[in-house]
């Protein structure tokens, strides 16, 4: 599942903040690493970039990690995605900021294009987190965001593989957005109905999380469950900060079965708002949408 990891670099220190994670992932998962940079043939920086990425590859090789370096041409995001597809890449690990100025997620940025277009899982590392990368790289606690849909559940298989290899604790999380019923009854009656309905949703969510926990626990993975009320993205971000989560894992789109929140937009807000690394998986579309 994680046989080959692709790591785009541009020669900047910010882009290199992915390296501690790449080292730990590759060693734990026994993955091959491909370092990739985009350079223009004949450009003054071509030789410097090629030498830079070769030195980076040699350093990983000295740690016993199978590594090779590649210099490609073309529009960066498109070239990275095309290379990944043609070379059986299992995971793309990329920083949200590099020399090219992609840290604040402007439309058209390299990292955002890779996330939007890639059908290969993406491990996204927030720039400016170098001080914590060394401590967080072991991924001791992985937060998995679920919404009750099969699409969101596609992330579980990828997290299971990581957790087994890295002895991580897995936290399965559901966030229920408060429900406001139409103004069809007196205030007190409406408030009562809303409370009853939320209680029903919580019971269903608890049963759902318990069902998802059982297979992971049976495979020897430590699993905890979290159920919260609130705005999904903000609640997930705050929980990750408060509980020292090392990685947030989620799908890039999905549709909620019970609470009806747009899972894709939640993923976008988590990517933009969280300081934590994020593992993103694009689940397959149902046959009716392919």
Give the structure's gist in a few sentences.
The protein has 290 residues and is an alpha/beta fold. 43% of the residues lie in helices and 20% in strands. The protein has helices at 19-29, 46-61, 76-86, 110-117, 130-136, 150-166, 187-218, 232-242, 263-273; strands at 4-8, 32-38, 67-72, 91-95, 122-125, 141-146, 169-176, 223-229, 247-251, 278-281.
In words, what does this structure look like?
By secondary structure, this protein is of the alpha/beta class. The protein folds into 2 domains: 4-136, 3-Layer(aba) Sandwich (Rossmann fold); 141-275 and 283-289, Rossmann fold, CATH 3.40.50. 43% of the residues lie in helices and 20% in strands. It contains 9 helices and 10 strands. It has helices at residues 19-29, 46-61, 76-86, 110-117, 130-136, 150-166, 187-218, 232-242, 263-273, and strands spanning 4-8, 32-38, 67-72, 91-95, 122-125, 141-146, 169-176, 223-229, 247-251, 278-281. A 10-stranded mixed sheet has the order 3-2-1-4-5-10-9-6-7-8, sandwiched between helices. Strand 7, helix 7 (187-218) and strand 8 form a beta-alpha-beta unit. Helix 3 (76-86) packs parallel to helix 4 (110-117) and helix 8 (232-242) packs parallel to helix 9. It is elongated, with a radius of gyration of 21 Å. Mean pLDDT is 85; it is low at 100-108 and 254-263.
């Amino acid at each position: 599942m994680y046989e080959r990891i692709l790591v785009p670099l541009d020669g900047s220190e910010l882009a290199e903040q992915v390296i501690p994670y790449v080292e730990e992932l590759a060693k734990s998962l026994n993955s091959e690493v491909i370092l990739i940079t985009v350079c223009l043939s004949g450009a003054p920086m071509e030789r410097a970039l090629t030498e830079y990425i070769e030195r980076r590859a040699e350093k990983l090789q000295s740690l016993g990690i199978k590594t090779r370096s590649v210099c490609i041409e073309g529009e960066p995001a498109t070239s990275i995605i095309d290379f990944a597809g043609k070379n059986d890449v299992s995971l793309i690990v990329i920083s949200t900021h590099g020399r090219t100025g992609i840290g604040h997620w402007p439309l058209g940025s390299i990292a955002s294009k890779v996330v939007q277009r890639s059908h290969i899982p993406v491990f996204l590392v927030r720039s400016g987190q170098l001080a914590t990368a060394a401590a967080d790289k072991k991924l001791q606690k992985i937060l998995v965001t679920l919404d009750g849909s099969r699409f969101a559940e596609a992330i579980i298989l990828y997290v299971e593989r990581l957790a087994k290899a890295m002895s991580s604790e897995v936290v399965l999380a559901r966030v229920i957005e408060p429900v406001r019923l139409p103004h069809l009854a007196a205030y007190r009656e409406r408030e009562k109905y809303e409370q009853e309905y939320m209680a029903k949703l919580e019971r269903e969510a608890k049963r759902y999380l318990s069902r998802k926990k059982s297979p992971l626990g049976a495979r020897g993975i430590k699993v905890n469950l979290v159920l919260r009320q609130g705005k999904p993205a903000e609640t997930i971000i705050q929980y990750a900060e408060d509980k020292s989560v090392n990685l947030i894992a989620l799908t890039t789109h999905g549709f909620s079965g019970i609470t009806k929140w747009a899972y894709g937009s939640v993923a976008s807000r988590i990517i933009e708002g969280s300081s934590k690394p994020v593992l993103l998986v694009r689940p397959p579309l149902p046959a009716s949408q392919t």
